[in-house]
Amino acid sequence: QNDIAAQLGLDRPERLIQGFRRENLGIEAVEIAPSARAALACDLLQDEDRRPAIVYAPTRAQTESLAADLAASFPAAAYHAGLDADRRKRVQQEFLDGRLQVMVATIAFGMGIDKPDVRTVIHTALPGSLEAYYQEIGRAGRDALPSRTILMHSYADRRTHDFFFERGYPDPSVLARIFDRLGPEPIEKEALKRLARLSADEFDNALEKLWIHGGALIDFAENVARGRDGWQESYSAQAEHKQQQLDLMLRYAEGAECRMAALVRHFGDLADSRKTCGICDFCDPAACIAQRFRSLTPAEERAAAETIDALRAGARSTGKLHAEVCASGDLTRDDFEEVLGAMARAGLVRIVETEFEKDGRTIPFRKAHLTSAGEAIEAGEKLSLEIKALPPAKTKPRKSKTKGKGKKKAAREKTPAPHGLEESLRQWRLAEAKRRGVPAFRILTDNALRAIAEQRPATAAELLAISGIGLSTVEKYGAHLYRLIQSVG
């Protein structure tokens, strides 16, 4: 919206934001360990009323493994960028035609797919942003009939995202080690790598980021010169934005309010965000198909009663409330937040997402308010509450039969790369980079180039199986690479 207003030169335009609500989608967010997610997905989809379905998995290997598990019970297949074009087209059409009941996919699947009767969308890992999540669950129930979406998550997702974030966005000091060694005269990339004293992967990633943000000038032959000062600001802003997207996704998964209302508010429709959906795991716990509930323990009952007493004096941040109510250490912060969630579902408290500014940064936090129903609770009155429980995994997935294939692939990867092929690939990459006017690593990274030389892919599927090779690379350069591999022999 801001970009549109800036491009059109609009001065404080009126913004009409609406249409984000999906009345027929019941959303559930289930905290469950990664090791139990495949079993839960299998269990949920045994009911034929929950199919057709789309199951999103984070990696190509997991889509293949889970699709094999599901295919033991009903027609299912995997879809990811590592499949050749013919197979992707075939399984996509079979799903649209109804011959496949479940598609297990990475985020490569779904763009432009208009299958109206998808009854269930399951995420077996936490998406990287609310924007991605909203788009993916939007593929359910386009026929306006009731549909469910299940988001599986745990703290392990945060660790996984943090690992990839740190690898993709190294500390600015790492980029500075390269920048500080640059001058107006270009230096060869390999010489710069030795000066920076970074590992190959770390150096390549940091140099690309430095180039993107203007701190390095790189020609087609990957000679590097000093770029502009001030690259740190845009780089840090981009990294912070990426982190904020994940933080918002995590807070959504752990939230204690109507799921649809929270999504609508996130996209800016503040007027419609006051209306609850009535069918999500917060609004109607009894309708849940994945989330389970249990009675409170004595310690949780005491915490709930003391929370009501504490909130009679006024709203508090949930952090301060935990410190006050659980001073004895009976409940961890996470356990206490689950108690607050149970109280919110029962209408006794209202949890509000808010924020404050500190040192120029926006810090989000949750604030608990006592509702009129909570105020009506008398001292000593027993509270009838249910707290979230880990759902049982009734179906044990079969072990994926990929052991032999893995050994075959490992053996192939250990085959020494013919020196002539690797050098030919480098010469081709250099010529292509010069023709396109971009640094050579934008055509193929060094790691991808070496892997091609070692594995000698002969098909699109084999080329896509190489780390760092995507669909666009195959479409642009696949034919050239196959011919080059054959010609060098």
Q: What this model shows, in words?
A:
It is a single chain. By secondary structure, the protein is an alpha/beta fold. It is 45% helix and 14% strand. It is built from 20 helices and 14 strands. It has helices at 2-7, 37-44, 60-71, 85-97, 130-137, 155-168, 172-179, 189-196, 200-212, 231-253, 259-266, 298-311, 318-325, 333-345, 372-375, 403-413, 419-436, 446-455, 460-464, 471-488; strands at 25-31, 53-56, 76-79, 102-105, 120-123, 147-153, 187-188, 216-218, 223-226, 292-295, 316-317, 349-358, 361-370, 386-389. The strands form four sheets. A six-stranded parallel β-sheet has the order 1-6-5-2-4-3. It has a three-stranded antiparallel β-sheet with strand order 7-9-8. A three-stranded antiparallel β-sheet has the order 11-13-12. A hairpin with a 2-residue loop joins strand 12 and strand 13. Helix 7 packs across helix 9 (200-212) and helix 17 packs across helix 18 (446-455). The N and C termini lie far apart (54 Å). Residues 395-417 have low confidence and may be disordered.
